[in-house]
Design brief:
Layout lengths: L1 E3 L2 E3 L2 E5 L14 H15 L10 H5 L3 H10 L5 E4 L15 H10 L4 E3 L1 E2 L5 H15 L3 E4 L16 H13 L3 E5 L15 H9 L4 E5 L6 H8 L5 E4 L3 H5 L4 H15 L4 E2 L9 H10 L16 H15 L16 H11 L1
Parallel strand pairs: 3-4, 4-5, 6-7, 7-8, 8-9, 9-10, 10-11
Antiparallel strand pairs: 1-2
Amino acid sequence: MYEKDGEKYFVVDGHQHFWDASPENWVKGQEQYAKGWIECFHAYMGLGPPETHWPLEKFMKYSEEDYVHDVFEAGHIDHAILQSTYLKEWYTDGFNTAERNARMAEKYPDKLIVNGRFDPREGEAGLKQLEEDAKRYNLKGVKVYTAEWYNGSRGWKLTDPEAQVFLDKCKELGIKNVHAHKGPTIWPLDKDAFDVKDIDVAATSNPELNFIVEHVGLPRIEDFCFMATQEPNVYAGLAVVIGGLMHARPRFFNKVMGELLFWVGEDKLLFGSDYGIWEPQWQVEGFVAWQMPDTEEYSDYPHPTVTSKKKIMGLNAAKLYDIEVPEELQVPGETPAAQEAAVGVESA
């Protein structure tokens, strides 16, 4: 919980990682890609305040103690969602697997949610694994990484027929939140494999699912906004927007947030720190303090209110994941997640 100027904010970090990119985990013969990937991630950390930068060795594999301190003790985070990204072409045990995340979540069950993943190129074996993971981890969400390399393929789309089979399996298993990385690329992945176009078709075809577009499609912000404004089940994940732009590119940050608030709206924006690329503390404190500049350049953008910031910082994600929000941290007149779920069940 974070408090500023007498207002209390329930904070849900919708986009976190607990990865292992240490050299001991690099696939033999693929070291250049494993090394280049994590070095590119580390370069993104440079967009945050200098005092928050880590040495590369720590960045490759930070400890449980680091995580607990940065997220729960200093970071103001009430709940966090650990997203799973495998990259087994380069990392022997996977970069950031559901199994690794679950070991952390077992220690902090009241604070952490584990999301699974799927890749339609894995076929029947992938469907079976998704079903097993859903039961083992009680999945409410999955992360998809459409630019991931796999057996010579350098990407896939949510419009692929094989992808629809997996989306149908998600619905069957009660997995309702699909987080799709659609934003800045990381070397050596292909930028165009992260294009947002396939989200449009998938969202329309699967109204039972929520599609959280992580990193809001950057640099394709206009494409994303015009698509998300017409798709009621498309949400904007603000990881990279806040961590990558708020400190290093404040004017561009104002523009991106202005477009998102105008087109997508405060009810469909979700805070995400992208830890461990950036620590959450400065992002939470900075975003709550942020105001849209009152100048001609930004005069046609909405100005965020305390209520809109409370929604963005945690209440919107709490609804998607049925996280119970203490009464004193709710927005008056808004239906909290747990009650909303109960009403839905009663009226069904």
